[in-house]
Amino acid sequence: MTHTTRDAEADVDHFNRTPESEARTLLESCLAVPRWVDEVLAGRPYRSGEQLVGAARALAGELTADEVDAAMARHPRIGEDAGAAHDIEHSRREQATIEAEDTWVRDELAEGNREYEARFGRVFLIRAAGRTFREVLDELRRRLQNAPEVETGEVVGQLTEIASLRLERVLANRPEPRAVTR
Fold first, then answer.
1. What is the full DSSP assignment across 120-169?
2. First vs last Cα of the chain: how many Å apart?
3. Share above pLDDT 90 across residues of the chain, in percent, rounded to a whole number
4. pLDDT digits over 81-91, tens only?
5. Please, which residues have CB within 8 angstroms of residue 125's CB and are 6 or more apart in sequence?
6. For a Cys-Cys bond, which of 22, 99, 138, 156 suits 177, CB 3.0-4.6 Å?
7. H helices then E strands: how many in the chain?
8. Higher pLDDT residue, 96 or 11?
9. Helix (H) or strand (E) holding 173
10. What is the spatial distance between Cα 181 and Cα 78, in angstroms, rounded to a whole number?
11. Which pLDDT value is given to residue 86?
12. Rounded CA gap, 20 and 117, in Å?
């Protein structure tokens, strides 16, 4: 986590004391999988932010195919604006660092998204934070070569990374929980 150990302890203490309904909303914004949310909540109280994020990562790594589908419904296409059905605040922040060097990169990404959706039946998902459009495009092209079962594993890995980053950000900022729009 990027903040101090003292901050992490205060943040996890705050999370541990947060009423269940508010903590549930917070967790759903990180990964919209009811079983995951229930199991992360059941682990309270956590001794540290690292323990909380570690538990959340481990539980996210066990997503079923149906849970992947449910979680994917909350993620916009990479390179597109998040809509009301998505976790707008998180998605915009995560994709804000992606900048296309050339228009052709955006066009290639849009075409790759269409090809990916036709091949795998879901939107292409990648942890966008800290990546350029070119890096995302290269990863999209690589993953288009995956067998479906391999790609499902990659999607679970990306959902895990995204959920972990979101949870770390939420712990660091301690925002007021808000209702999640669906």
1. HSS------TT--HHHHHHHHHHHTTS-HHHHHHHHHHHHHHHHHHHHHH
2. 29
3. 59
4. 544 444 445 44
5. 72, 75, 78, 155, 158, 159, 162
6. 22
7. 9, 0
8. 11
9. helix 148-173
10. 19
11. 40
12. 36
Contact by Cβ (8 Å): 69, 99: no
- Quote the CA–CA distance of 22 and 3 in Å, as a whole number: 23
Give the pLDDT band (50/70/90) at residue 5: very low
Is residue 12 packed enough to be buried (19+ CB in 10 Å), middle (13-18) or exposed (0-12)? Answer: buried
In the numeric block, the tokens 């419904």 are attached to: 73
The closest of 15, 2, 31, 8 to 162, measured between CA atoms, is 31
pTM equals 0.78
Nearest to 33 by CA among 88, 87, 93: 87
Please return the burial class of 57, using the count of CB atoms within 10 Å of its CB with bins 0-12, 13-18 and 19+.
Answer: middle
Rounded CA separation 164/54 (Å): 8
Residue with tokens 């790759």: 112
Q: What is the maximum alpha-carbon separation in the chain?
A: 49
Contacts by 103-107, CB closer than 8 A, 24 or more apart: 105/133, 105/134, 105/137, 106/79, 106/133
In angstroms, the CA 113 to CA 49 distance is: 35
Q: Give me the pLDDT at residue 172, please.
A: 84
